[in-house]
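Format notes (please read before filing issues)

Several people have asked whether sequences and C-alpha cells are stored in separate files. They are not. Every record keeps both together, in the order shown below: the sequence lines, then the C-alpha cell lines. Line labels are part of the format and must not be stripped during preprocessing.
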Amino acid sequence: MFSRSCEYALQSILYITLHGEENKAVGLKEISESQQVPLHFLSKILQQLVKQKVLISTKGPHGGFSLNIPPEELRLITIVEIIDGLDIFDRCGIGLKQCSDKTPCPIHFDYKVVKEKIHKLLSEKTLSQLCHDVNQGKSIVTFK
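Then the structure lines:
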C-alpha cells in the first residue's frame, strides 16, 4: 500500500527515536546501514521530513537527524502524508480509474473498510506508542 520511500521514512523515524539520545543526532550512515538502504536515497527521504519540520538535520562530525516533534505528538499519518500523500486512501484496490461507491470494482466495498481501518490506525498511533511497545518487548523491530 505504501511506497518504498514511505516505508523507509517510517522505519527511519522509528530508528531515530529508539536510538537517538537527548542532544545527540543519529547519523545518516548509521540509519542507512541499519536499514540497508542506499545513503543517497535515504538522504532525499529524510530531507523531505526536515523540510516539513518533522526532523532536524545537524551538520558536522556529530551531525545527523533528530526529531523536531515530540514522539508522543507525532502520528504515523503525518509521515505517510508527507511522503506518499493521503490520496493512497482514495485509490482503487485493483487499480481501476473509475472505481467509486457508484461504480464499484469487485473488491471496492471490502477494500474501503480496510483502507478506513488503516487510516484510523495511522491517525491514532503515535511514534511514542510504537517505541513503548518495542521497549516493553510487545513488538520486535529488527534493524540489520
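For reference, the curators noted about this record: The longest strand covers residues 55-58. The radius of gyration is 17 Å.
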